[in-house]
Write a sequence for this structure.
């Protein structure tokens, strides 16, 4: 039997034993990786590569700083880059030329400023940065962003991973965005290690919280009590409008007169204010038109908002919630979307797709969506008319005065 010939590309020839006291000369390990040893005993790693059609030699660091395993990892990554048409030598030089003074805090502030331009919710913008200030900055804030490794990020996540899982998820995501941003800016050689760290940390239970939602049978009584309350008219109008349109709080509070067509009874919410990023046409019932007409008469003419707290300024995110709190309720405005959805399932014979379209939810898979080219607008108008009639006390109403104090029952969609 013929013995196996040692080829020029045999991998992993070197061992730990070879490295204890290597003889002067060049020692091949395979994959173009060599250990070069000087007569005085100094040893360094070198890799021979073909980069964009040219043979090049690339230093990988001294043996005292770079282990055999690390050198092999670097060599493998460099080969991948070179085979893809890249230049690992130029990449390494760029990494050395990075801004040595750029800290994680610097990168986070720039990343936040860039992303905040597209955020519609100022509260979210504030929370995005405050989360990093509270949990990431104490450890990473003053570190050079180019030097942050997986162990540093793990040190941030470990204390909160199981005790504050939802916060930990947000911190992981936001730290990852900052590190990816730093790489894109050339301040860091690698992207974020956060996804890999998720596999190293203990398994985190999935958390699904439902917005406390009022049973639909209690909604007519609630609206009657709302109308009779001493809250501001604009706040009462906004909350009732939200309920009968089954809309999200941000959509209602950000509504502008330019989006309203009273003659056609349509409210078109632009895509940049919708959760799914697509424009949504809401059929307006007569009650919704009446509310808008009342707001039109009271409009200051200063700004374009429908529901103003003061001339030119919309109601705050907390305004509608505080009305419900003053009425001693534990439900939240967003929960009325769930109230509507359950009503549609139990009281309407229209297909479920109609109710989902009314809530601006996607239905079915991508293929089904490609063939469904209608937004079911007229059927949605029929459903919203029935829902508004119900909210106005049209049928089988449970007295709000006798209703139990609200508690979470239905999950908000």
């Amino acid at each position: 039997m013929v013995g196996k010939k040692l080829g020029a590309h045999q991998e992993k020839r070197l061992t730990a034993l070879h490295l204890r006291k290597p003889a002067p000369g060049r020692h091949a390990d395979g994959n173009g990786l060599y250990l070069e040893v000087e007569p005085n005993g100094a040893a360094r790693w070198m890799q021979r590569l073909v980069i964009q059609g040219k043979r090049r030699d690339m230093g990988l660091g001294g043996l005292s700083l770079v282990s055999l395993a690390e050198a092999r990892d670097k060599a493998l990554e460099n080969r991948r880059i070179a085979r893809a048409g890249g230049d690992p030598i130029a990449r390494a030089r760029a990494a050395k030329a990075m801004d040595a003074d750029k800290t994680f805090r610097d990168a986070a502030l720039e990343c936040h400023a860039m992303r905040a331009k597209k955020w519609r919710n100022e509260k979210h913008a504030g929370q995005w940065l405050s989360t990093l200030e509270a949990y990431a900055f104490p450890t990473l804030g003053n570190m050079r962003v180019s030097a942050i490794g997986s162990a540093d990020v793990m040190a941030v996540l470990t204390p909160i991973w199981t005790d504050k899982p939802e916060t930990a998820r947000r911190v992981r995501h936001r730290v990852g965005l900052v590190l990816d941003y730093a790489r894109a800016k050339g301040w860091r050689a690698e992207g974020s290690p956060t996804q890999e760290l998720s596999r190293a940390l203990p398994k985190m239970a999935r958390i699904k919280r439902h917005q406390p939602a009022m049973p639909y049978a209690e909604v007519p009584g609630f609206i009657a009590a709302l109308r009779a309350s001493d809250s501001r008219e604009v706040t009462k109008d906004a909350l009732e409008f939200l309920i009968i349109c089954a809309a999200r709080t941000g959509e209602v509070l950000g509504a502008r007169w330019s989006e309203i067509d009273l003659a056609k009874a349509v409210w078109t919410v632009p895509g940049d204010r919708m959760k799914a990023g697509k424009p949504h046409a809401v059929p307006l019932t007569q009650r919704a038109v009446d509310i808008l007409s009342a707001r039109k008469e009271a409009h200051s003419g200063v700004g374009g908002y429908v529901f103003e707290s003061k001339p030119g300024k919309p109601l705050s995110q907390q305004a509608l919630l505080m009305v419900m709190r003053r009425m001693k309720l534990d439900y939240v405005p967003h929960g009325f979307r769930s109230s509507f959805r359950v009503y549609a399932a139990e009281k309407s014979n229209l297909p479920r797709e109609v109710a989902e379209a009314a809530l601006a939810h996607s239905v079915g898979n991508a293929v089904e969506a490609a063939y469904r080219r209608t937004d079911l607008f007229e059927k949605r108008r029929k459903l919203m008319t029935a829902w508004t009639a119900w909210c106005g006390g049209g049928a089988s109403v449970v007295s709000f005065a006798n209703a139990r104090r609200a508690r979470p029952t239905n999950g908000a969609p």
Observations:
- The first strand starts at residue 25 and ends at 30.
- The radius of gyration is 31 Å.
